[in-house]
Design brief:
Chain lengths: 136, 136
Amino acid sequence: MKIGELSRATGTNIETIRYYERIGLLPPPARTDANYRSYGGEHRSRLSFVRHSRDLGFTIEEIRSLLDLSDHPDRDCGEADRIATRHLEQVEEKIAQLSALREELSRIIGRCRGGLAGDCRVIEALGDHGQCASPH
Amino acid sequence: MKIGELSRATGTNIETIRYYERIGLLPPPARTDANYRSYGGEHRSRLSFVRHSRDLGFTIEEIRSLLDLSDHPDRDCGEADRIATRHLEQVEEKIAQLSALREELSRIIGRCRGGLAGDCRVIEALGDHGQCASPH
DNA sequence: GCTTGACCCTGTAGTTGCTACAGGCTGCAT
DNA sequence: ATGCAGCCTGTAGCAACTACAGGGTCAAGC
């Protein structure tokens, strides 16, 4: 199949597919006489693997390691587990950060009752140095 | 004060301060005879505003709008409220996404019992097209 | 047989928000 | 005088794409 078909089949931008090839995440496919890329089922499933991993937020480097393991079924699976576990921890940390951020934003927005920017609590709160809840 | 002092006073990298000036987020300060940047209290509070906003995850463009409002106290504050509210929505959406992601990662990792990569549930799950809980 | 339009190719530059040099000047202490 | 911290400009790098510019290829329709 040509790159456009692979693109539709996997929901991946054409430019992104070529990018993945350029950085060595996908192997260079065969070419037609017209120098068009020609992909098979293996490329397709490899790209699906990459897309799914990206959707889960793994970095390109992490995916490289995961693909490497996937290419060597005789290796120990512990590394995959470590990568995934570390990633899960990062996701949990990010959620915690964003939750704190949500609290602060809610607090700031709750104080805005319209009017002029000069009296705006949102702008005022941003100017403060981290003291957003009024002390009493 | 010189750029190093401003840097320490606001917890901002020197390179970042110059970057903010370059993109027009901070006004160019006066210069000493030796062509050193010379900042006053206004620069300091403006930079604090920027840092605090960045910590809350606002983009540079959003901060540009917020600063603009802050510079014109006679304008309507509704725009600040809209920016902050939209941002809060984005944060909430991101939290929701990450929570879903956490669930999927936990599920994937829970299935790994060690062994060889060929049997690894983590790698297998990544290869699937979104069907990670086995149907039976 | 010729044109139109969809598709493909390479290579490079842009995006966001910084960060990290290289290569050179200034200011102060020893 | 010499060393070192601190400052200057300008450019390049990071992640992970995305968006062209400028060209080649192929099938269909007139």
